[in-house]
Structure formats: C-alpha cells, structure tokens
Amino acid sequence: MHQMLSKILFNIEVSPTYYKMGIDCPEIASRAAPGQFIMVRVSNQLDPLLRRPFVIHRIQRANTGSYSQVEILYKIVGKGTEIMSEMKEYDDIDLLGPVGNGYKIDNNIRTAVLVGGGIGAAPLLSLAERIISQCSKLKSLILLLGGKGRADVLCVEEFERLGVEVRVATEDGSLEHRGLVVDLLLDYLESGDYSPGSSTHCFACGPDTMLKEVSKIIAEKGISCQISLESRMACAVGACLGCVVRTKAGGDVYKKVCKDGPVFDSNEIFWDESTTIG
Amino acid sequence: MDLSVNIGGIQLKNPVMTASGTFGYGEEYAPYVGLDKLGAIVVKGISLKPRPGNPPPRIVETTGGMLNSIGLENIGVDRFIGEKLPYLIDSGATIIVNIFGSSIEEYGDVANKLDDTHGISGLEINISCPNVKEGGIIFGSDPHMAFEVVNFVRQSTKLPLIIKLSPNVTDIAEIARSVQDAGADALSLINTIKGMAIDIETKTPKLANITGGLSGPAIKPIALRMVWEVARVTKIPVIGIGGIMNAYDALEFIIAGASAIQVGTANFVNPKATVDILSGIEKYLSDHRIGDIKSLIGTLSRE
To answer: How far is A166 from chain B (nearest CA, A)?
Structure first.
C-alpha cells in the first residue's frame, strides 16, 4: 500500500449528485485489482478529519500501455464528498492504496452474474473488464442494476460497450422494471439461463439490505457469491478495528472490512437485525 | 541534539510514542514508519483472554474528531506473546504493552505473564476505557479503586508501570496522586472523552454501543489542561495524549509538563504522523537553539 499526492485528471458529474474522478497514480494502478479501494484525504484541514474509502471503479492504461490511472465513482452524501465534487483537473489529491482484497476471479467462469445497487455499480465495471480479459471460457456476462430512480442507475453504456447484457430495475419505475434489483435476480435464476454448479459465479455490491437478500437467494441455489461491503473506516490498515463486520464463524467473531475484505464470500457474513454496515 | 527522555525507568530515544489502540500491534504501520525510529510503540490493549469487542458500527466521525466504541477487541496475552511480539522485537522498537482486566486479579495475571517475557520495556495500565463496563473506567474513576489496582499490579511485575488516566472524572489530579502513591512510575493522559452522536432521520445513535470515546483535535485543549494540572502536582513523569496532530501540538504538551507524548487519531489520517511530528520537534529545538529536549519540559511561563 502506498501513500502519495496524485494529480486529478478529471472530475465530472455523471448523473445528478454522482461524480466520476480520474486520478494519475501509477503506483496504485499498477498493483490494483477489481474490488480494492483507495483512501482519500479530502482536505488538509482538521474537519473533515478522516480519510474516505472509495472502491476503484476502473483501472486504466495510459498511452504508454501500462496501468497508470484509477477512476472512482462517488455520490455526494456529506461534507467530504461535497468537497471532493469541487476539486478540479490538475489539483493534488492525497491517496492511500490500493487497500484490501479484491474479487477472486476463477479462470473457469462460464457465467458471471453481477448485481449492483446504486453506487454499488462502481467496482463492477473494472470487475467486468477483468472477467472478460481473464476468463477464456466465458459464455455469459450479465449485469443486474438497481436504483431508486433513473438517476441512480449508473454506467449502463460503459457496461454495454463491453458487451455486458444489462437489466435494470428502478424503485419508482422511471427506467425499465419497476421494483428491486433482487426481483431481477429472482427472475434470472428462475429462467434457468445459467449452468448450475461451479462455472457460474455471482458478484454483488450495493446497500446491505440488497446484499443480505442477494446472499440469501444465491445460497439457496448453491451458486458461489462474492459481495463487496462498505463500512465507516478510520485507518484502513487493520489497526483501529473500527470497520468490522460480524461473521458466521462463531457468535461474536468479527472481520475487518479494510483488511479481510472489502470483498467477502457471501456465506461468511452473519446477517441479522443488528448487522449494520455503515 | 539530545531528544532522549526517561519515563519512569524506560529510556526513550525521543519523546514520540504511539497511542494504544491506534497503532495495532505495530506491524500494521511498518510500511510507513520505521518502528525503531520512535520513542516507543504502545500496542493495542491486551487482556488475559481474547475479546471480540463491541458490535458495529463502532466508529463515527464528528467535528474535528471521531467517536469509537471498539470495546477492547484483542487477541489475548498468550497469542500476543506468541504471534505479535516476535515481530516487534525484531523491528528494534521499544515496546510498551497496554493491558487491562475485568478484575484486579486479572490485571495482575496479565502483568505477571508479561513480566516473564523478554523484550518488553514497560506496561501501560488502562484504567480508563469508556466503552466497556467491566474493565477500565470503573477502576479509573475512583481514587481508592485506582490505588488498589495499581498497588496489585505493582506487586505482580518488576516492569515500569505507566498508568493511563481517564478524563471522565471530576478531579484527575486526585486520581493521579492516588496511583503515584500506589507505586506508578509514570502517568499517561488523557484517554478518550465519553460522547455520543445521533442520526436525526432514524433517531438512532450512530454507534451500536450508543456512547463512545471522543478523540482527535477536538479534545486537545481539554487534554492539555489536564496534563498541566497533573504535571504540577505529581513527581513522576507525565505522557501527554489527546488530539496531537503535528509538532506544534506536541510541543504545547511538553511545555505544559509532559515528558513525552503519544500520537493517536493522527495516525489514521496520516500514517507517517509520528515521524513527521518527530522531525517537527527537532526543527523547533534547532530553531530555538535548545540542545536537550528535557530542558523544555514544563517550561510554561505566566509572563
């Protein structure tokens, strides 16, 4: 993991309150894997104080051909992201990364089902790119994307450009299916358009209510599923123990989202009423 | 330039230490900081048996600070000695182990186990965690209880004892005098200040434990005042802790009477905070032609 000052390449609003930032940081880009994240110090002032975690949206090659840029996708949710949204091209940004364990991608994947809710679409783009380049037996790559409304459904074109089949659900019905992304997953699994067994993999990122449902549905089908968790976080190096999540390994065994995650096997996580993830 | 200080028998090469609970077991920050370059590494609090800690959410940021209720999660003294200590010894760091217990006897048992262990320079006794009922604060908020626990630990180990004090008391100087009388070699203060934060949409506390300990720059003036109050009425060295983000903050504590300082929350923001603070102190000493940091300790003037 590295700490560095990097240059912002662009910082654009991609949908109301959602931004995409490109950063020139070869040290991180050359080592980063889909599902890993970076910690951003949004200001040199004492408030906001802590770094903010952002999952890597895309790992990009420069003209030289080497991986040298990362992109993050973020939504304005508070003081920190508000400050970030005002940053400009060529500004310096203080980063720590890449942090955590990314998605484990089995080379033998034939069918990959990606499930994203709102800003949870962020890591799935770099994941889709990596699956396409790495899995030679891939037959089907499908993305199920959900959001409250049309504005919360992100990056559909980018996914389609990769050849990913995208199905969308919005809670207000402003785009495609009216309902939850979980409905799309149930429909997909019922349609039987996948080969059950070890060649089908599910990957999900989104709000914990969505991840909890996805984990439950997938477990019933016996499909392997990796989920990417979010948490409030302070250090990101495994020292503060602030970002823990409860696991099934005994009653009170916690794992650190920053160091043991942020990607977990969905069977590992213990979901209950009190499971609150930041 | 002489940066060395002696903390109740522990010789430190400089006054910059890490605060317990903010630096893991040292190895987490080794990519950023030469562990042997610091005065001492104070590790995450250790108990006799492993503890799972409190349910999440455990942290929340507040204005200029953060609340935590980790609940003293740790791997227990045996696994610490077996799995974490060898790495720290190899790093060349000066090692101080923070310990706590749920009873006076347990404090003694942990101290006793570490007494027989090679490579440890001293113990920091936590009688001040605000986040667990049975350990810590119950011993730190009453002068008699504080005396009893320190007196018992004193008899369980020959290692130098630093007692970490709580700010959540009416008169911190009274507790300080009490643990000094019980045989403490040094004091460290302050631990976090009990606080809370509420989500007004859900009307729920932002921490699962409802309350937590406030740390960070928001608490620095309170910490500084308490260090000053304690240093002027005790004879043993005082270690200043509380919202130290840079060398200027650290120097304020030293002038107020602290012989050394601990860096906590700042590590989360800047993983190199400790070494940055150390070089800032060196620059100040050099700029002010001070050859020995010891001559700066407690030099607060009222003029």
So the answer is: 34
Find the CATH number of the domain harbouring A44: 2.40.30.10
In the stretch 214-243 of chain B, residues with CB closer than 8 A to chain A read: 216-217
Q: Does B5 touch chain A (CB under 8 A)?
A: no
Q: How far is CA A244 from CA A235, A238, A258, B30, B65, in A?
A: 12, 10, 8, 22, 20
* Contact criterion met (CB < 8 Å) for B265 and A233: no
Q: Which residue in B190, B159, B179, B192 sits closest to B66, CA to CA?
A: B192
Q: Is A233 on the interface with B (CB under 8 A)?
A: yes
Q: Going residue by residue through chain A (278 aa), what tens digit of pLDDT does each one get?
A: 889 999 999 999 999 999 999 999 999 999 999 999 999 999 999 999 999 999 999 998 877 778 899 999 999 999 999 999 999 999 999 999 999 999 999 999 999 999 999 999 999 999 999 999 999 999 999 999 999 999 999 999 999 999 999 999 999 999 999 999 999 999 999 887 777 677 899 999 999 999 999 999 998 888 999 999 999 999 999 999 999 999 887 656 899 999 999 999 999 999 875 444 43
Instruction: For residue B23, give how far its alpha carbon lies from the nearest alpha carbon of chain A (Å).
Output: 5
- Is residue B168 part of the annotated active site? The answer reads no
The neighbour count for residue A207, using CB atoms within 10 Å, is 15
The residue from A99, A130, A165 where one domain ends is A99
Q: Is residue A278 part of a domain?
A: no
| Active-site pick, B67, B111, B129, B162 | B129
Backbone angles phi, psi at B48, to 5 degrees: -60, -45
